[in-house]
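Hey all, sorry for the wall of text incoming. These are the three entities for the joint prediction.
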Amino acid sequence: MLKHALIAFLQTNVPGLPEHRVANIFKPLASPGASEKEIALLTFAITGAIFVVVAGLIVYTMWRFRRKAGDDEHQEPPQVYGSNQIEIAWTVIPILIVFVLIGVSARVIASVENASPPPATAKVTLVGHQWWWEVDYPQFNVRTANEIHVPVSRNGNHATYLTLESVDVIHSFWAPQLAGKMDLIPNRQNFTWIDPSEPGVYFGNCAEYCGTQHANMLLRVIAQEPDDFKSWAVTEAKPAVDDPSVASGKAMYQSLSCVNCHTIRGTSSIGQFGPDLTHLMSRQTIGAGMLTNTPEHLRAWVNDPQVIKPGCLMPSMNLTDRELNQVVGYLETLR
Amino acid sequence: MADNDVLTADALTLEQHWALPDRGKVGIIFLIITETALFSIFVAAYLVYIGKSLVGPYPKDVLDVPILATICLLSSSLTVYLAEHALSKNELGRFKFWWIVTICLGLEFLVATGLEWKKLIYEDHLTISTNLFGSTFYPLVGLHASHVTVGMIFLLIVLAVTLMGFPIQTQFRRVLFLSWYWHFVDAVWVVVFTVVYIIGR
Amino acid sequence: MASIDYPLEYPREDKAYSFSETLYSWVATVDHKRLGLMYVVSALLFLVIAGAMAVVIRLQLMFPESHVVAPDTFNRLFTMHGTTMVFLVGMPMVAGFSNYLVPLMIGARDMAFPRMNAFGFWIFLFGGLLLYFSYIGGGGLGGAGSAPDVGWFAYAPLTSKAFSRGAATDYWALGILVSGVGSIASAINVIATTVSLRCPGMTLSKMPIFVWVMLVDSWLILIVLPPLNAAQIMLLMDRHLGSNFFETQAGGSAVLWQHFFWIFGHPEVYVLIFPAFAILSEVIPVFSRKPIFGRAAMVGAVVAIGFISLGVWAHHMFAVGMTAWSNTFFAAASMLVGVPTGIKIFNWTATMYGGRIRYSTAMMYCCAFLLHFLVAGLTGIMLAVAPFDWQLHDSYFVVAHFHYTLIGGLVFGLMAGMYYWFPKVSGKLLSESLGKWNFWLFVIGFNMTFFTLHFAGFLGMPRRIYTYAPDRGWDTINFIASVGALVQAVAVACFAWNVLYSLKKGEPAGDDPWDGWTLEWATTSPPPEYNFERLPVVRSSRPLWDLKHPQDPDWKYE
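and here's what came out:
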């Protein structure tokens, strides 16, 4: 286990950006997550107090009124049928507590849902697919997958707005340290927002069961300094690099049915079903966060995705070693 | 033990005066309640999807208000009551007459529904898969029509055994419960009619 | 008793029956006790099957990135586990316990509609078998067989033809629809029995709380199962007739399915937990040697739950993007349900308070219920706080929460009921020493699994994933949880062994081993087919107390 962890850590650690793999909801690093943590702690305090009092009473009763060795078998304890005063007390008190809780949570629901979020620097349309995330930035003319680059928002001035849609079944966006869940529902638009306060890679998952590979519909939110984010967006908006040294690989790619599902902007490959590959190599992972994006992994993936992610919608193309090398060689130039 | 004697006498009075509701009555009432819950979901689905169809035909273009069928079905509630009333007075002839009238009225309703569907399917090309209107219309109206059909089958069974000479007055309870079911089916039609032919258009 | 039209005495025969005669007598029976037993036994069989599935699930998740089962197999396992536990274990337990005990407790000779009762059981069993037939026929004609893999709440449009090929989802919908009809039949029967067949003197205010809870439970079933059945009919129409109820491509709504499902689904958890409430309300007084504290409040609380729980369903949908108003409304209603539930816990504790508690295994399970159900209730409050729920929703915290209600609550309550009534049903006592093993292993294993899983939720682990990376902080938690699952499996094996062993070699129980107060202890163990030789007349809610304490009967106070 430890070895696994170490390897994974060494492979994917991007210099400069701390990785938040353990997504503890009690260590939020964005405003929505922080307000959710605040009400969580309040709820804990109230329910914890209730637990201590009630469980204490139950355990005390269990112990104090046990039948002891010397008790007379036939002696029955006093028969008590109830007490209206007590019933009223333990009806009214919980109702009061509940009303406090309702009031508080109504306030927080309103403050999170109705409050206008800080002005947005980035507007993202996140589209759920079985089993990957399409990430669109209409304002920057950028389309990528599975890794949501957003600017860091230190003083609440660079929030990112997310419009959530789905092309097939229901998915759910969940980056626990940034914000609670919001579903991606076909034939419907949802909205959520995040404003990470520290640069870093925030891990998340699809949180609504969406079929075979629900477990491997992983998500990364990459929060960068606003300037870094801008330059990333500018690079991503460019069409694909056309490297003449891999012309044969490009031709091979275009002769295969890859083009039916994938887009590489600037080429005739304009499929929509799979992730946009225009800047494939700028991404940290492939297979929706399953593998680090290394040449070996990419080769294994293209060779037969079903071995790595059984049931995923990308088939094996049954390429020969030579063809495989050509295609992967071409893909590796897409920076 | 005078106390015990008092208790025994008490028990006897308790037994003698102990009367609880007829179990059949309770059963049919709760059957009707659970059926109401079933219908309410189909009605809810219809209401949710009013005006949400992406393509035609739309209700206002193809639906005609089934006035005659509605009058028939609603008046069959009255005739089934008259039949049941006659049976309670042991007037078998009147019972048979009103019972047959009820069956005829119910049949007319079913035939009218059938003709309406035939027109919708063959002339207006509205099927269950055409649009959301079709998807909600046929299941809702069909669910009601299937209840009418079930009621009709039971009405016919009662008629058949009566005509064969079975002393139906001995089964007054069951006839009564059947008539309650029939009233329920009528009441549902009032809701379906309002939703489909008035609100939905 | 002219209104009872059953013969008072059946001829008793002591001749040996051949196997086929015995089989026939069970298949053709309309006796409420035999049907009740068949319900409970088939529920226990399904419990073992679905429990074994849970063990495989936990083995797969024991270590990160393990390959015990394939992804599709895993998805089928949790779908079948959930569906089975809810529809083929929980629901028949409701029907089984109420069938066996309600007539005995109200001093009746059978249910109101014995033949409908038999129909209800067989149609339930048929539904269950239909669901499991999907392992053979789920692939559709000519396809390889497979079970449904859409999750137990089967969110649209994952269930549409486009995303769920083959016939697996059809078997799922049909199986539930068919067994749902059985549940409705059984519920109508329980209501008619309670309303119409109580023995002389048993007014509603003197009816045992067990019967009251089952009455409200049946009411809930009648109100909430039809929405589920309606939704299943719509789903089947979508899949086979081409209607568009949940077809998002044709303008249908995926959220509508969730509404329909949870209008059923949330009250359903109360339907499932009510038998445990019912059992506790009988077992705790007898072993504390005191009448139930606050009878009226206990009944009132159950009735309140029976109504409030109808208006809380959308707290399962806080993440679908409802308006702030709906979120607030459903959060408020959900918390409000906590109040009557709290009242029940307080009253059970007050019943024990001042008593002389005898810790048999049945009573120990009751105490375990109180503590675990308290935790379940409080985590439920956390989930009802909508903003907190946005984090907890569909995470392992939810899994932990509802297993606290359904194992810590329902199963512990059912265990208490089994230990309490087994002597009545079989005439033999269950072994107390095996019972203690069963109890402690179950409690320890259960907490190892599900207490730890709360924390997996806090660390962002979503439910229904078949694998996870080793570096997400989830591996230790999952390892402990899986070990706990194995401990629970041993505990259940202890119980099974206890039942089989005690049936053969258990101590004879006598008619009234616990010195009980309700009418079922007034007849023999096991009761004769006609239940009572002479129908009893009652004057209080504890008729046997009155009989045993003629100087100080209850009816003087009630």
